[in-house]
C-alpha cells in the first residue's frame, strides 16, 4: 500500500478518509462518471469529496506503476499540488491511495475536494457566440498555465470546470495526471488549444485572442493552431483505421 496526504489537511479524519478510500468508494452510491475510470462523490464527516478510481492496468503496466514510475493517482496528486503552487486553479488535492498485490499495482484512488461548478466547456462551446466572455476567460486561464510552464496533454472541454457567480467566472482544471512541466514554444501552446474545437471560426477566435494577450504574432498563432488541429484529426483517422472503422 502506498499512501500520501495533503499536509494542509492535518486533521486525523482526513487521513482516515484516504486510508479507507477503497472501501468508502465501493460503498458510495453517487456515481459521477463511469468509463475507463470511475468518478464518485464520497461523503465523509459531513463533507463531500470527489474520488477518482483508475482502471486497473495490464500486467506489464501494473508492475511498472508499482515499482518504476508514478501511478496515475500519484501523478494526479503531485501535479494538482504543483498547479496550486503556481496559482493555477484546480480542486484541492487531499491524498491518494495505491494498493499492490504481488509487487503489481492493483487499485489506485485520487481524492480531491468537491468543486461546485455550473458546467464545463462543453456547454460553452455548444453556444459559443453567447459565451465568448467565458471563452476569453478560458484562453487567459490557459495562457497563465503556459506562462507557468504547465502543459496539459489532455486539454479537452470536459477538463475545464466553470462556476458562474454574479459577474465573476471561476475556472478550474481537472484530470491533472496527464501534465508536463516544461517551457513551451508557440507550436506546443497552439497544439494544446487545437483540441478544444473542430470549428474553424472558433479556432480562429482562440488564436486571435491568445495573440492579443501575449507577445505572439497573430499569423503564427493561427497557422500553428490549425497545424495542431490537422495533426490531431489525422491521428484520430489513423486510430479509426487501425480499429477497422
Describe it for me?
Strand 2 and strand 3 form a beta hairpin. The longest helix is centred in the C-terminal third of the chain and has 25 residues. A 6-stranded antiparallel β-sheet has the order 1-5-6-4-3-2, with helices on both faces. It has a 3-stranded antiparallel β-sheet with strand order 7-9-10. With 245 residues, the chain is an alpha+beta fold. It is built from 9 helices and 11 strands. Helix 6 packs across helix 8, helix 7 crosses helix 9 and helix 8 packs across helix 9. The chain folds into 2 domains: 112 residues, Phosphorylase Kinase, domain 1 (2-Layer Sandwich); 120 residues, Transferase(Phosphotransferase) domain 1 (Transferase(Phosphotransferase), domain 1).
Q: What structural class do you assign from the helix and strand content?
A: alpha+beta
Q: How far apart are the first and last residues' alpha carbons, in Å?
A: 41 Å
β-strand amount:
25-35%
Low-confidence stretches: none
CATH fold annotation of the largest domain: Transferase(Phosphotransferase), domain 1
What is the spatial order of strands in the main beta sheet? 1-5-6-4-3-2
Task: Count all strands and give the number.
Answer: 11
Specify the CATH homologous superfamily of the largest domain. Transferase(Phosphotransferase) domain 1
CATH architecture of the largest domain: Orthogonal Bundle
Question: Can you summarize the main beta sheet?
Answer: 6 strands, antiparallel
Overall geometry comes to: globular
Helical stretch count?
9
Structural domain tally: 2
Rg from C-alpha positions? Answer: 19 Å
Q: What is the helical fraction, as a range of percent? A: 40-55%
Reading off the top of the CATH hierarchy, the class of the largest domain is best stated as Mainly Alpha
